[in-house]
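Quick one: structure tokens for this chain, please?
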Amino acid sequence: MEPVLAALAAQQEELTDLLAGIDAALWARASACEGWTVADVVLHLAQTNEMATGSARGDFEGALASLTGGVAPIAGNVDEGAGLMVEHQRGAGADELLERWTRSCVDLREALRSRSPADRVTWVAGEMAARTLASTRLAETWIHTGDVADGLGVALEPDDRLWHIARLAWRTIPYAFARAGRPPPGPVAFELIAPSGASWSFAEDGTPDTIVRGPAHDLCRLAGQRADAAHTSLVAEGPDAAAVLDLVRTYA
């Protein structure tokens, strides 16, 4: 659990550093997340951190209820539900919002650290391992850090903590296919180049039917719906190549 929590802490710190000292006009600037300002993105991350903290503490439903009081339920629509939660709590000042964000980060890591990696916890997509929840929070925080950076006009360099996000994308391929109503694919492998230049391989034992090759940064952006496969350097081959590139994801 510690490696992914260290990566999560580093990712949270990167976003916190971006936010430190920015003025009200920058908090109100449009982010790369359509329809949301920088402040909206940070609020969403704080809210979902609080939900994940409740999950790690065995009270996901209670955490969700405290965040959605007065919000009409949207069954089966995660994105719209997230939008309603942001709309419901939008309007806090910059200092208050930054404090909520940083507190949510500390609380989340402490809650996750209290669990064994294989412990089952509840999340939006159903039950998952505590380590998977930590990886999911890392992936979402990384995605939205990029959204904020784009809104602020800041260029970020990718880091090898993307290993955890790439692993999450690989491990959840069966879930991605099932969510799309597709039959499960044959064995899939990722052969990726890390930001540091190292080679990363994600594969089951035996010979894979489908292989995706290319930069890990491209794969993570694709899985986070921040890039189209045609505009990356990813190359896939095998019977499920097109479907994997279309469906790979790191979120519920």
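Strands lie at 120-123, 126-129, 188-193, 199-202, 210-215, 235-237.
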